[in-house]
Amino acid sequence: MAAMIGRIWGAFNPPATPKSKDALSFGILGAANIAPLALLGPAKTHPEIIIQAVAARDRTKAEKFAKANSIPEVKNSYQDVLDDPSIDCVFIPLANSLHFEWAVRSIRAGKHVLLEKPSVANATEAEILFNLPELSKHNGPVLLEAFHNRFYPAWSFFRSLINPTNVVLVSSNSMIPWWGTGKDDIHFNYDLAGGTMMAMGTYNFAALRMAFDADPEECLSCDVTPGTEGVHAKCDYDFTARFRFPNGAIGEAHSTLKGPTIWTPSHVTATHKAVVVPDELLPADQEKVQSREVTLHGIIHGIFWHRIDVKDVFEIRSKDNGSVIRKWTEQKSHKTYSFNEAGGTFADLPGETSWMSYRYMLEQFVNRVRGRETQHWVSGQDSIAQMKMLDMAYEKSGLGIRPTSEFAATTA
Asked: Residue 110: CB partners within 8 Å, gap ≥ 6?
């Protein structure tokens, strides 16, 4: 308990870090509640990042936000942020429906973009955005979908424990208690590209893709509880989806934004098929068979708590008739709040136990902008595939994909 308290205290009360003379300057589009957690806090401990400006539709709100977070400048509009040559990077935590337009505008203004997930409203927008010609130019803008949890050490260690070729079933669950959301939240506004799959579900879908290291071939089913009136119509409050992956493997995902009163941690479980493993000590007429199940508890905000459980079931079988001669189970649990704790090939990667997933992500974002090596990344093609999976599920559910921005027509 003391270690957890110290870790979380360090994350929310980081020491002041001197800034380099050529630190990258960030502007924020929108005085969003997620910004302090996703960027402002992590930036405090990064010597190459300063937060320079913020803009919001309501200037008064932007001024209050700037004062509360010690941001030196308040711009009159989002475009004013993009027009400022002293700003190098832009963070976009706007409503999903606005991601596409302002990401395109930012890239065309020559800004590097950290874009809140989901990256856009649908795959049509994703195909346009991540294939903008500006992104392929030498020293062109860097664009990253802010899938922060994928940069956390626990995810890397979890993936090192599974063999995607042998995985036959992956299930992932997440939830927000009913008291954590309200009817008027943007998550429940269809015009703003809302829905539980777009909010929490995108974590679950990404978990399936990462565990299989593949994209789904078909959404077999997607059961939802939708809103029924006005902007809430076509917005899922909860969903349960089932996908077919290559080689007949199955992925299952469930989430709700109206869950039970007591919060329960998110998780993903990868189940492997039984495979023969070498054992030189066995007689020639026997073989050793292993079945593995690996579960990562706490897939989103691992710093607060997570655990990786590994369950291996072994059997000694007769090669003649397949009968089981001996059977036993081995179980281990791991926690990796830093890459050093993960050990092995991860041991020398940067990070501290007090770093949140957002801080790990920011480290890689700056590395990419600076032209340095990145150990982890979410590519544009990865983000496109993620939106195709979301579209696939929404189409199967009967709610239909989220609407395409009118701004898309101007990008041709």
From this structure: 134, 141
Residues 6+ apart with CB under 8 A from 281: none
Q: What sign has the CA pseudo-torsion 403, 404, 406, 407?
A: positive
Say which DSSP state 233 is in. Answer: B
279-312 per-position pLDDT tens digit = 999 999 999 999 999 999 999 999 999 999 999 9
Q: Which pair of tokens denotes residue 230?
A: 């006005």
Q: What is the DSSP letter of 127?
A: H
- Within 10 A of 72 (CB to CB), how many other CB atoms are there? 10
pTM: 0.96
Contact call for residues 399 and 223 (beta carbons, < 8 A):
no
**Token pair in block for residue 104:** 């395109």
Q: What is the C-alpha to C-alpha distance for residues 74 and 370, in angstroms, rounded to an integer?
A: 27
What pLDDT is recorded for position 411? 86
The DSSP element (H or E) to which 288 belongs, if any, is: strand 286-297
Q: What is d(CA 381, CA 369) in angstroms, rounded to the nearest whole number?
A: 18
Determine whether 206 is exposed, middle or buried from the number of CB atoms within 10 Å of its CB (0-12, 13-18, 19+). buried
